[in-house]
Amino acid sequence: MPIYNPPTKDLHFVLHDTLKVSEKSTPGYDELDADFTSAILEEAGKIARDVLAPLNVVGDTEGCHLENGVVRTPKGFKDAFDTLREGGWTGLDCDPEFGGQGMPYVLQTAVGEMHSGANMALNMYPGLTHGAYSAIHAHGSQALKEIYLPKMVTCEWTGTMNLTEPHCGTDLGLLRTKAEPQGDGSYKVTGQKIFISAGEHDMAENIIHLVLAKIPGGPEGVKGISLFIVPKFLVNDDGSLGQRNALSCGKIEEKMGIHGNSTCVMNYDGATGYLVGDEHKGLRAMFTMMNEARIGVGLQGYAQAEAAYQNAVVYAKDRLQGRDVTGTKNPDGPADPLLVHPDVRRSLMDQKSFVEGARAFVLWSATLIDAHVRGEDEDAHGLISLMTPVVKGFLTDKGFEMSVQAQQLYGGHGYIEEWGMSQFTRDARIAMIYEGANGVQALDLVGRKLAQDGGKHVMAFFDLVKTFIKENDGNEALKTGFLEPLKAASKDLQAAGMFFMQNGMKNPNAALSGSTDFMHLFGHVCLGLMWAQMAKAAMEALDAGAEDRDFMDAKIATGRYYMARQLPATTMHLARINSGADPVMALADEAF
Fold first, then answer.
1. 132 in helix, strand or coil?
2. What is the mean pLDDT of residues 208-214?
3. Is 186 exposed, middle or buried (0-12, 13-18, 19+ CB in 10 A)?
């Protein structure tokens, strides 16, 4: 069975040595001292390792089953879910007014990585509930908050998001689900939604569906979309559960991965719903949930890569195959371990340098969310809005790629289910698709986010990079291996942005043809910045007499690898972008 060891030491390094969270001015961060966060991370890590990880294979092999309208989750899932609930993990960063613990989102993110890495399918149940909670908290009336949020914080009631319909996914203007007003403040919701994660299951008393629908007579397209709470069971005035609502699970989708999560077709047959926010403003409210979910999905991408990498390292050290070309390393055995071979080490270094860079990128992004939500920092809000498609798109593309690389190290065993590597690859694959397929993330980045507020936020990112380089220009240890590659990559990113500015208006295809390359170029620069910051932190720790010198040395060496072997990809992506639309659009439709 695959192993999972919570990366608590690395999480601690990023939070305290690199990001220095307890020194930030964001409200609540002064409480994030090293001892406090270590205690939280250690306990969350134990649950990940001892409770969630052993059920990962169980969820994959058993899956979910629909019986008489009820979805049965895999053996052990409910007990593990109860462990999360009873320990308060589902409400870690939720509002204390509704029973949450009120901790910063960055701490929730660190915990979420471990729980997702240990068991992605199971962690989706509280994860989706958290997103639904956030949407209601931000846009719901006080009455709706008081009815639904306390039970959602504890996950006694779970939540979902219902967007996609059989005939429309990304193009939500085409959706047909309707909501007819009833005169008493409620609506009758009718329609069918597909791909609804955690749409029906047996682990909670009630399921609170957030459903996008159109009120008859409203504007056409996306301007006519509203958001509704549609509970599985109606809630009585005293808070107790009433009758079953007119909704049902039509089927469970047979999926490539995340078998332990029930992905349902949901049918709404005049179900009672309640408006969240204003009429015809539902997309704005749902995007509160979707943007949070996209950060979470980016986290899933690298969390699966982390789990796969951990197992690949063990295999590479244990599996004896061939001899080291420079001389035998295991003279008492029939062969040397895989780890001695340069190409195996290259693959492992690809994985390690990506995962650790991605971890820092996501935790830094979480600090931006906290700065906006807790500190009302609008600049932080603009920057995280820009970064969201990069976090989601780049990290899930690369996370899947790294999971495949980990599987590849096993050779034929990687293709055999009993070794567990197939599950990491299959589970990671969905992250590139849901919450907005990665091609759409790239289009959003180039088509909307770059020009948002007159390009203010991308310029702020460039300034961030320039300032870091300038402030550390005298650091010779950092300069050659980190600052110079980062400067070159940042120039590639600026050149790509200039190409879009010069060509995008007169030929939109010229910009959009390079959108995925731009998203990856941007992602590499972000990880380059993270690695430069981590290398600086590790060097400072060594200078200060760090006890774990091996850890710090390894951090610097891994960062040098990323800067030397991964960051130069920005030049390739820029060359593709500069080729414009002609190579992409040249072929006639009928030639495909």
1. helix
2. 97
3. middle
In DSSP terms, which residues pair with 165 in a beta bridge? 168
Ramachandran region, residue 236 (left: φ > 0; alpha: ψ -120 to 50; beta: rest): beta
Q: Specify the 3-state DSSP secondary structure of 359.
A: helix
What would the 3-class secondary structure string for 478-543 be? HHHHHHHHHHHHHHHHHHHHHHHHHHCCCCHHHHHCCHHHHHHHHHHHHHHHHHHHHHHHHHHHHH
CA 580 to each of CA 4, 131, 173, 442, 506: distance values in angstroms, whole numbers, following the listed order? 44, 38, 30, 16, 12
Phi, psi angles (nearest 5°) of residue 118: -75, -35
pLDDT of residue 354: 98
pLDDT at residue 500 greater than cutoff 90: yes
The Cα–Cα gap between 518 and 508 comes to: 14
220: tokens are: 């056409």
Distance, in Å, from the CA atom of 124 to the CA atom of 245, rounded to the nearest integer, reads 24
Tell me the CB-side half-sphere exposure of residue 518, using CA atoms within 13 A.
Answer: 32
Q: Which residues of 87-100 are buried (b: 16+ CB within 10 A; e: fewer)?
A: eebbbbbbbeebbb
The residue assigned the tokens 């879009």 is 500
Q: What is the DSSP letter of 74?
A: P
| CA separation, residue 131 to residues 208, 297, 372 (Å) | 11, 12, 17
pLDDT digits (tens, 9 = 90+) for 76-90: 999 999 999 999 999
Helix-, strand-, coil-residue percentages of the chain, each rounded to 5: 60, 15, 25
Q: Are 467 and 473 in contact (CB under 8 A)?
A: no
Residues assigned a catalytic role: 435
Position 222 scores a pLDDT of 87
Nearest Cα to 522, choosing from 582, 461, 468? 461
For the question of whether the overall pTM of this predicted structure is more than 0.90, the answer is yes
Confidence (pLDDT) at 401: 98
- What does the block give as tokens for 391? 């976090």
Cα-based distances in Å from 494 to 498, 500, 571, 577: 6, 10, 12, 12
In this structure, what is the dihedral angle of CA atoms 267, 271, 277, 278, given to the nearest 10 degrees? 100
- Strands 225-231, 241-244: pairing is unpaired
CA distance 168 to 179: 18
Token duo for residue 183: 């005169």
Q: How many CB atoms lie within 10 A of CB 418?
A: 9
HEC secondary structure over 420-452 = CHHHHHHHHHHCCCCCCCHHHHHHHHHHHHCCH
User: How many angstroms separate the CA atoms of 440 and 115, rounded?
Assistant: 27
User: Greatest CA separation found in the chain?
Assistant: 83
Sign of CA dihedral 451, 452, 454, 456: negative
**Are the CB atoms for 369 and 295 separated by under 8 Å?**
yes
**The two structure tokens encoding residue 297:** 């999905």
Q: Exposure pattern of 546-557 as b/e (b: 16+ CB <10 Å)? A: beeeeebeebbe
* Cβ atoms 574, 496 nearer than 8 A: yes
**Contact assessment for residue 350 and residue 316, using Cβ atoms and an 8 Å cutoff:** no
Residues 6 or more apart from 401 whose CB is under 8 A from it?
none
> What b/e string do you get for 165-184 counting C-beta neighbours within 10 Å, with b at 16 or more?
beeebeebeebebbbeeeee
